[in-house]
Amino acid sequence: MSKPFCRKCLLDELDEDEYIRSLKDYISAYPQEKRCVMSEYRRRLEICAKCENLSNAMCALCGCYVELRALKKETYCPDFGDRWKK
Ligand code: SF4
Description:
By secondary structure, the protein is mainly alpha-helical. The chain is built from three helices and two strands, in the order ααββα. The protein has a domain of 52 residues. It has a two-stranded antiparallel ribbon with strand order 1-2. A hairpin with a 2-residue loop joins strand 1 and strand 2. The structure holds iron/sulfur cluster. Iron/sulfur cluster (SF4) binds next to helix 2.
């Protein structure tokens, strides 16, 4: 039986597979009204995927998981000039 996800655990205490699963569950359950439209989400992630600041699914500038940051309607890319800006 796996340990329940704890938001306050340190990285050393986490099971990596469990953590990734929990993150994906969090993304799936994120409220529709706070999400950007799917086409915009995909566009943002395509930009992140080509960005030199992307490392292990995280943005080196803000420390966010980009798949979560890009999901939020009101967020922006933290790089100077905002790479997501149209
Ligand atoms: S959020 Fe911006 S700076 Fe960060 S990885 Fe994505 S495009 Fe690059």
